[in-house]
Amino acid sequence: MTDSPPLRLRLDGAALADNWHALDRLSGTAACGAAVKANGYGLGARDVTGRLIAAGCRDLYVATWAEAEEIADLCAGRSLSVFHGVRREDMAAAIDSPARPCLNSAAQIMRWREAGGGACDVMVDTGMNRLGVSVREVRDGLLDGLRLDTLMSHLACADEPGNPKNDDQHKALASLSERTGAMRMSLANSAGIVLGKKYHFDLTRPGISLYGGAQVEALVPHIRQVAFPEAQVIQRRTIGPGDTVGYNATFTADRDIELAILHIGYADGYLRGFSGTGGARFGDAACPVIGRVSMDLVAVSVDAAPETREGDWLAIDFDLPAASAQSGLSQYELLTTLGRRYQRSWYE
Ligand SMILES: *Cc1c(COP(=O)(O)O)cnc(C)c1O
């Protein structure tokens, strides 16, 4: 087996730690946790968890029990919570796990009580209509007697600072502050942290911004890029006027163009939204994507760097806010679809 794949993902550990420190500062007196679900947003759950804990993070969140199991040893002495709670088939793993469930429905709460489950979190739905018990159920005493660590809710529109729904959701959660025996309350994801102090409660739960995402302008100056895909040139060619490039011949040259064929494509999470819009760099030279992205390959113009040769490496433009604008994909999709073919290496 070869150990030198034609594409690599450089991961900046210092940027990850700096992003957590920035979000921790922005969270004021609230603790700053970290969502490491979906394999650490595609970057590697164990790698990001170890680094975030070393940075000082004490509250980790995953979506499933399999994800909890994968990092449980790293989280010893820290708090680990499973957003999706306990389905019937999760109970055996959940009861034995050092992680807490975040219970989402009356049925899950009953299941947890009947099994004699210990500390838990609860999600209350304040307007997203996704997971969670209702504000009314909490008022009516559904949580009474639970060993409740964190009562949390989740914002539907945190990336729209002007949306009045944010304030509605804040009010709904705040209205429960005296109603339960929860040790802590939590509302804000990454973008929620910069909505204002009142959104912080006791604990914030950023995810995407740890990994370089900035959904709102207010986060941009604080957040650094963490994931840097690079792809190798596997062929060079020159095309002339009238030549077309790629599937469906969507690009036709009107002049001579120097092309480099890079070993990256939609199977690597470089989805077709980058067709004709994405870019790469060779040193400082900008190398725009030409034509459609294929499964494993993409063509870029190296007119600005004609010295590029087979075997050279190009850095893919992957600043998340910019790449999202180019591709029409969300910053979350850009990270979580990165494929398995990259040689991943952390530096710092
Ligand atoms: C994923 C998730 C987060 C993190 O959200 P980001 O937008 O990535 O910061 C926080 N809370 C819940 C409930 C989540 O599912």
Structure in words:
The protein has eleven helices and 20 strands. By secondary structure, the chain is an alpha/beta fold. The chain folds into two domains: 33-211, Alanine racemase (TIM Barrel, Alpha-Beta Barrel), CATH 3.20.20; 227-347, Lyase, Ornithine Decarboxylase, Chain A, domain 1, CATH 2.40.37. It binds pyridoxal-5'-phosphate (PLP). Residues 35, 37, 83, 154, 189-190, 205-209 line the site of pyridoxal-5'-phosphate.
Describe this protein with a few key phrases:
348 residues; alpha/beta; Lyase, Ornithine Decarboxylase, Chain A, domain 1; 2 domains; 8-stranded parallel beta sheet; 20 strands; 25% helix; 25% strand; binds pyridoxal-5'-phosphate
- The number of distinct β-strands equals 20
Structural class: alpha/beta
CATH architecture of the largest domain: Alpha-Beta Barrel
Assembly state (oligomeric): single chain
Which ions, cofactors or small ligands are bound in this entry? pyridoxal-5'-phosphate
Largest sheet: 8 strands, parallel
* Average pLDDT, all residues: 97
Short description:
The chain has 348 residues and is α/β, with parallel strands linked by helices. The chain is built from 11 helices and 20 strands. The strands form 4 sheets. Strands 3, 4, 5, 6, 7, 8, 9 and 10 form an 8-stranded parallel beta sheet that branches. A 6-stranded antiparallel beta barrel has the order 12-15-18-17-16-19.
